[in-house]
Design brief:
Length: 418
């Protein structure tokens, strides 16, 4: 049973998407070639700066236009959601839904597809780049590990409107997106962990008709509140208590990923992107100058919450790297247990105390053990190791410009806040 008509989603999104900037053929080809080249250049900078390593070779980014981005994201949603939605549909059929229910579902699937397409058409004009975690299987049935995508028309439009150096801006965007590729391609577990959280979120979404009407009323109230200038979003309105708890875990992971990307793109340094400080200032000023209608749409879609993820995540990374250095910060990528919770994203000292300090104490105790056997006192070994973590401050110095984020994107993406 189809809950979302994916073809309707693609067709609606492409039909509603705004056209890109006017670019002559030679300039368009030059932009595509340079973006591919700079994505490879950025890989080296990210690897050198973070100390992380890809587990498999990575080629240049895939360059797409707005319709191409919409198609890719519908494919991604389909990979993640369709198996779970089919399972929920089978449960409804087993519970006794008949022909009338099937007709209702067919109509509803087209409506849902159109709604998804409308959201994607809005985002397609803003997203600059994205690391696609979830892709359809290849012809042999193997699931690709991920794909880095850059939306050329949006990058060209943003650099023109910001009046910044095109090469610097393009490399700046590539640094953020290549950091995402590094995060998910340098570990064997992170992609599956994120997909598992998303599955939990969807499978906890079943509700009866009365609960659905309550959520619908809450959504209407959220719209009215946002229009009046208050806070709220449709995403929050439709979450159950169980989903809110899962969403906190998803938010923690994505805040870390986005904040880390933002930290790296600014901290790699002016020797790589000479005009990085000016790009950041203009980019932030542009986002803050969005018109009222655009701000309302962004808030309803939860994109302002996305901005908060960038800011809190970047602050977490800056604080941890400043206190314990890049090598100990990289413990976040070791396992699900070393990921920060949402509370720890907002209190980096708590993550350091839970993850870094115990490791330093253990290492200090192990180092002191042979001395103890030889009659030398073993005391002091562990504290000195912990103190040494503090002495690592300054590894990967935080950028002067601490404005977080590159924009309004769904998880995994970078966007300009038009």
């Amino acid at each position: 049973m189809t809950v979302i008509d994916w073809d309707v989603a693609v067709n609606t999104g492409i039909r509603l998407a705004r056209p890109g900037p006017q670019v002559d053929l030679a300039d368009a080809r030059q932009a595509v070639a340079q973006l591919r080249e700079l994505s490879v250049t950025a890989q080296g900078h990210v690897q050198e700066f973070t100390g992380m390593n890809l587990l498999e070779p990575a080629g240049p980014a895939v360059i797409v236009d707005r319709p191409g981005w919409i198609r890719a994201n519908v494919d991604g949603f389909r990979v993640v959601l369709e198996p779970m939605l089919d399972r929920l549909g089978a449960q409804r059929i087993a519970a006794g839904a008949g022909t009338a229910g099937s007709i209702t579902t067919a109509v509803g699937s087209r409506i849902t597809g159109a709604q998804l397409g409308a959201v994607l058409s809005y985002l397609a004009g803003r997203v600059l780049g994205q690391y696609e975690l979830f892709l359809p299987p290849d012809p042999d049935g193997n699931a690709p590990t991920g794909r880095l995508t850059l939306v050329a028309p949006n990058i060209v439009q943003a650099e023109r409107e910001l009046d910044v150096d095109p090469r610097d801006f393009r490399l700046w965007v590539c640094l953020h997106e290549e950091t995402h590729r590094m995060q998910f391609s340098s570990s064997t577990w992170l992609r599956g962990h994120v997909q598992g959280l998303m599955q939990e979120m969807v499978l906890s979404s079943e509700m009866d008709a009365a609960a659905f009407l309550d959520r619908l009323r809450a959504a209407g109230e959220a719209v009215a509140e946002v229009v009046r200038g208050g806070e709220g979003s449709l995403l929050q309105a439709f979450q159950s208590d169980e989903q809110s708890e899962i969403m906190d875990r998803i938010t923690a992971v994505m805040s870390l990923a986005e904040g880390h990307g933002d930290y790296v793109m600014d901290a790699v340094g002016p020797e790589v992107v000479p005009s990085v400080a000016e790009i950041r200032r203009r980019f932030q000023r542009r986002r803050e100058g969005a018109n009222r209608i655009d701000r309302i749409i962004r808030q309803l879609l939860g994109l302002d919450l996305k901005m908060k993820q960038y800011e809190e995540g970047a602050a977490f990374v800056r604080k941890v790297v400043a206190q314990v250095g890049m090598a100990d910060f990289n413990r976040v990528w070791e396992s699900p247990e070393t990921l920060p919770t949402l509370a720890e994203i907002r209190d980096p000292d708590a993550w350091i105390a839970r993850v870094v300090r115990p490791a330093a104490l253990t290492a200090g105790a192990d180092a002191a053990a042979p001395a103890a056997e030889d009659g030398a006192p073993a005391s002091g070994g562990a504290p000195s190791a912990a103190d040494g973590a503090d002495a690592g401050a300054g590894g990967g110095a935080p950028p002067e410009d601490d404005a977080g984020g590159t924009g309004d994107a769904p998880p995994r993406g970078t966007a300009e806040g038009a």
